[in-house]
Each structure stands twice: as structure tokens, then as C-alpha cells.
Amino acid sequence: MINLIGSYGYAALFFCLWLGIVGMPIPDEVIVMSGGIVSSIGILQPIPAFLLTYLGVVSGLSIGYIIGRVMGVKVVDRVLAKQKNKHLLKAQNLLAKYNHYALVLSYFIPFVRHIVPYLVGINKMTFKRYALYSYSTGFFWTLFYFILGATFGEYIEKIADLAFRYGLWFGIILGIGMLAYILYYKTNTFRRSKRHEKSDLNIDRG
Predict the structure, then answer these.
(1) 164 near 110, Cβ under 8 Å?
(2) Are 131 and 124 in contact (CB under 8 A)?
(3) Distance between CA 93 and CA 134 in Å, rounded?
(4) Mean pLDDT in residue range 10-21
(5) Which pLDDT score, from 0 to 100, does residue 187 have?
């Protein structure tokens, strides 16, 4: 992956993720973390590298949604038949249990993340709803692994192995972290507003 990026730059990040829909032999997590690595050592600029990586992720998955939406149930026989049956069953169970939230959870389950967009397309989910859940989750998923690559690049193989085994737990940790940050931000904002109110009140009294 590093060699590909060295040869083709930003395009390698985008197209390797975009082609994930047809079964690229390199796991998505490894590609995203590779983008973080090459950004941290100055081969690519961090912001363009992240943006191209993110666009590669969401556009690749969107193709699955569009094919499912256009081709309907035919896609299961023609495309999903290439996937291992256990991943298809896992994606179907996830969708049956969590409905549109399956789009969020599937990001953290290798292989399943590529199948769920097909299924929600087949079920005629509106593009607006698909984009809301998929693109927002994709942003934080990409950012998470991009930062991991930039920070712990020497452990990329171990992290990728853990992601394959405990990917959903990675998602739970990320979700808890985001929730904690939001609560921290709101609490600080509330405290600052209270201080300003007290300050303004003291000025008025003066």
C-alpha cells in the first residue's frame, strides 16, 4: 500500500477504497491507516490525504447502495453471491435488528460494511437517509483510523488484526469518546455562559 501511494499519490488512497466494492485484497482499515502514515512523514499533505481517503470510502459504499437501489433483489445473486455467505447473513441480521442504524454499526465490521449498502438500496431506503447515516459515520470512522495510522503507524498490522477481530468494540469506544467530548463541550459552554451572565450582572449593578 505504501508503494502504491509512493507511485500514485492521493489517487491511490481514493481508488483503492473506491474499488473496495469489488473486493480489493487490502483491508479498508489498512488503506486508511496507510494514508495517516504517509501524511505523518510528509509524503502527502494531511488534509488533502484525509479528504481523498474519506471520499474514497463513502463513494465506494455509495456505489453499492445505487446498485442495490437500481437492480433490486437481482444484486444478491449477481454480486453478493461472491461474498462469503456468513457475511451476507450477518449483514441481513444486522439490518433486521437495527434497521437504518445498521449503516452505522456496519462500518466497524469488515466485509459487512460493503454488503449493508446493497441491502438498504434493495429495501429502497431514500438517498437522503442513506447519506445522513453513512456519510456522517464514514467521516468519523475515516478520521479514527487515519489518526491511528498517523500516531501508531509502526503497529499498523496489529491494529488491523484487532480491527478485524474487535471492530465493533472500536466503534463503541469511538462512540463513547464522541459522546464524552460532546458532553464536555456543552458543559464548558454552559459554564462560560453562566460566567458571562454573572459578569454582566455585576457590571449592571456597578
Answers:
(1) yes
(2) no
(3) 18
(4) 80
(5) 77
DSSP one-letter string for the chain: -HHHHHHHTHHHHHHHHHGGGG--SS-HHHHHHHHHHHHHTTSS-HHHHHHHHHHHHHHHHHHHHHHHHHHTTHHHHHTGGGS-HHHHHHHHHHHHHHGGGHHHHHTTSTTHHHHHHHHHHHTT--HHHHHHHHHHHHHHHHHHHHHHHHHSGGGHHHHHHHHHHHHHHHHHHHHHHHHHHHHHHHHHHHHHHHHHHHHHHHHHH-
Q: How far is CA 166 from the centre of its chain?
A: 15
> Cell 447473513 identifies what position?
89
Mean pLDDT over residues 137-155, rounded?
88
- Cell readout for 53 is 481517503
What are the pLDDT digits (tens) for 43-92?
889 999 999 999 999 998 898 899 888 887 766 666 555 555 678 888 88
d(CA 63, CA 57): 10
Q: Return the closest-CA partner of residue 55 out of 27, 38, 71, 35.
A: 35
